[in-house]
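Weekly structure sync, notes
Attendees: PL (lead), two postdocs, one rotation student
Agenda item 3: pending single-chain targets
PL asked that the sequence for the first pending target be pasted directly into the notes so everyone works from the same version. It is reproduced below exactly as submitted, 358 residues in total.
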Amino acid sequence: MGGVTRPDGQPVPSTPRLFDIAAQAQVSEATVSRVLNGKAGVAASTRRRVLAALDVLGYERPLRLHRRSAGLVGLVIPELTNPIFPAFAQIIEQSLAGHGYTPVLCTQMPGGATEDELVEQLEERGVTGIVFLSGLHADTHADPTRYARLTSRGVPYVLINGYHPQIDAPFVSPDDGAAARMAVRHLAELGHERIGLAVGPVRYVPSRRKAEGFVAALGESFGLSRGQAERFVQHTLFSVEGGDAAAATLLDQGCTGIVCGSDLMALGAVRAARRRGLDVPARLSVVGFDDSQLIAFTDPPLTTVRQPVQAMATAAVGALIEEIHDRAEGHRRGPAQRTEFIFQPELVVRGSTGPAPG
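Predicted structure, written out during the meeting:
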C-alpha cells in the first residue's frame, strides 16, 4: 500500500489482515472471512460494515466482491457550501449503495447547469430514478409541470425539503413549523420577550412554514397578533451574509433572541452581534437550524434545531426504491400513498443561548 496508514497511525499491510478488518467492523474474523470469500449467510448490513472497514483501512476490495449495479440514481442538490447538503448526500449515497444502486451526484452552482439541465443529462444516461434535495419543488414561484413531464417519461423520483400539492410523488420534510415553535419556546423560557426570526426568501416552502410556526409561537407565548408578530420576521438569503443582514435589522428592533432558518444564517447573526460589541449569549441569544457536524465546534457552540437527516435520507431512498419497483411492475399507487412524510426535529441546546439580559 506504500505509505498508507490506518486510523491509529500504523501502516496498512499490503495483504488484508482479518484481525484488523474484524476490529474495524466490530465483527468476528470468521464473518470477515465469509464476506471476503463471497459466502452466503451474512446479513446485508454486516456485509456493508465489512466492506466499509476495507475502505476505511485502505484495502482494495477483492474482485469477487464487486457487484453489478442495479442502476444509476441521480441526486440533485443545490450546492456543497452549506454543510447540511453534503451530510444528506453522504447518507443518501450510502443507502442507495446498500440497495445496489450507483449514486450520481449533481450539484447546481451559480453560472452552472440548472436543475432542468441536470435532469436532462441524467435521463440521457438512463438513470433508474432521481432524488431531489431542496430543489425547484420547494420554490412556490417555479413551474411544477417539469415534474409531471418527468413522471410521464417514466422516471421515478422523490423530493426532500419542499412540498407542492400538484406534484405526484413522495415528499420527505422536517416539521419546519415545529422547529420554529420549539426555538421560540426555548428563548421564552430563558426570559427573552422580544424575539426575531431570520429566514430565507418567502417564496420557499420551508421559509413559509418556519415563519408560520414562529408567528404562531409568538402568539402563544406573548399574546401577539399575527400582524404584530410578523414585524419580527426578516426574509433574506439562506447564507451567512443573509443572517448578518437580518440580525442587524432585528437588533435595531430591540431583539435579544434570534431564531434562524439555517445554521449558516445563525453564524451570520453571531457576526452581526459581535460587530456591535454584543456578547453571545450574554446580550444576544441565537438559535440555528440543521445541526451539521461542525456546528458543535463554533464559537460559541451553536444552539440549534437538529434536522433528522439520517431518518429523512433513509426514508427518501426507501420511498424511491418502492417507486422504482412499482414502475417496473407496472403498478400505480393511489393518492393516499403519495403523501408528505414529516419528521420531527430536535432542539440541541449549546452555548449560543442564555438568559435574557437584564
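Discussion points:
- The chain has a mean pLDDT of 89.
- Residues 309-328 form the longest helix (20 residues).
Action: rotation student to compare against the earlier draft before next sync.
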